[in-house]
Design a protein that fits this description.
The structure is a single chain. By secondary structure, the chain is mostly beta strands. It folds into two domains: 63 residues, no CATH class; 55 residues, no CATH class. Helix content is 0%, strand content 43%. Strands 1-7-5-3-4 form a five-stranded antiparallel sheet, with no helix packed on it. Strands 8-10-9-11-12 form a five-stranded mixed beta barrel. A hairpin with a 6-residue loop joins β3 and β4.
Length: 139
């Protein structure tokens, strides 16, 4: 396709910051948790983020999603992208000088400075660091 020659309206999804994803069987995702996709293609399901490099982090849960008694996809979770505050890992802390670098998942509410030799998935980009934790931008 050729480059634009004039301005045009770009289609926008109902909300570019939220999406609803099917939750894995025997799983509960708590409000405020980082959410990840496990699996691939049409078999992908949402799970709480963890230090597994096979996961793809997709945002933050906006409400609890309890699928402990269901099969894959029986329940869904609304996720949101944006900039959110998470706990800073005590053993691998993120510092102010790390702003702009990747933050890595330790668990569904904690981020660290390193990938732990590629064992942890990228959570998002470090936006700010304060005493209360680390602000991480998800996209």
């Amino acid at each position: 396709m050729a480059a634009l020659q004039k301005g045009h309206l770009v289609r926008e999804r109902y909300s570019t910051t939220t999406r609803r994803l099917p939750v894995a069987a025997s799983t509960v995702i708590w409000e405020g948790a980082m959410v990840a996709l496990s699996g691939s293609g049409s078999a992908a399901v949402a799970v709480p983020a963890s230090a597994s490099n096979t996961l793809k982090i997709v945002g933050v849960a906006m409400a609890n999603a309890d699928n402990r008694l269901g099969v894959d996809g029986l329940q869904s979770v609304e996720t949101k992208v944006g900039t959110f505050l998470f706990d800073n890992a005590a053993a691998d802390p993120i510092a102010l000088g790390d702003i702009g670098a990747n933050a890595y998942v330790v668990d569904d509410h904690t981020v660290a400075r390193t990938s732990n030799s590629n064992a942890r998935p990228v959570a998002g980009v470090i936006f700010d660091v304060e005493a209360a934790g680390v602000w991480v931008r998800f996209s």
